[in-house]
């Protein structure tokens, strides 16, 4: 018998079979207070990420390695966006203070900022918001025995 192992398949078109889909770590040690709730239409209500119950001053860390492509203010609040390659980006919103600049290469777990009263964490794949929970955790490997 031969042993065949394969990682769970990434969304179509995101990575080639040679690339490994990143496994994210939670950006903070705080409970989720509002999970991902996709809107019914592009302008409808919902939550395009997850909200964490942070305390002002909690350290926010990069969920996965990548390059900072945005770090600054939008509508009076601070945000950081990290490009992980393959059309995958993560964003960290409502920060109290930034810890990175555009162009910074970050490793998983690197400090990217300090949380305000809450942290909104979102993930986009090829521009579409997707549930961050699908990326957080341990890589699962499916093993199947096949006859020779």
Give structural notes:
The structure is a single chain. The protein has 148 residues and is an all-beta fold. It has no helices and eleven strands. The chain has strands spanning 2-7, 32-34, 50-52, 59-61, 66-74, 77-85, 88-98, 105-106, 111-125, 128-130, 141-146. Strands 2, 3, 4, 5, 6, 7, 8, 9 and 10 form a nine-stranded antiparallel sheet that branches. Strand 6 and strand 7 (88-98) form a beta hairpin. The radius of gyration is 17 Å and the shape is globular.
**Strand tally:** 11
Radius of gyration: 17 Å
CA-based shape: globular
**Please, what is the oligomeric state?**
single chain
Our measurement of the CA-to-CA distance between the termini, rounded to an integer number of angstroms, reads: 5 Å
* Count of alpha/pi helices: 0
Strand content: over 45%
Parts with pLDDT < 50 across at least 5 consecutive residues: 1-18
User: What string gives the helices and strands in order?
Assistant: EEEEEEEEEEE
> How much helix, percentage-wise, in residues?
under 10%
Q: Class by helix and strand content?
A: mainly beta
Question: What profile does the largest beta sheet have?
Answer: 9 strands, antiparallel
Mean pLDDT reading: 85
């Amino acid at each position: 018998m031969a042993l065949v192992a394969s990682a769970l398949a990434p969304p179509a078109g995101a990575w080639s079979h040679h690339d490994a889909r990143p496994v994210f770590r939670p950006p903070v040690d705080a409970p989720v207070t509002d999970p991902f709730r996709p809107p019914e239409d592009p302008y409808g209500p919902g939550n395009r990420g997850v909200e964490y119950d942070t305390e002002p001053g909690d350290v926010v860390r990069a969920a996965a390695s990548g390059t900072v492509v945005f770090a600054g203010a939008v509508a009076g609040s601070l945000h950081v966006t990290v490009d992980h390659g393959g059309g995958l980006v993560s964003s960290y919103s409502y920060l109290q203070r930034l810890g990175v600049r555009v162009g910074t290469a970050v490793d998983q777990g690197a400090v990217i900022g300090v949380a305000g009263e809450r942290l909104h964490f979102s993930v986009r794949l090829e521009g579409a918001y997707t549930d961050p929970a699908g990326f957080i955790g341990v890589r699962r490997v499916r093993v199947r025995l096949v006859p020779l």
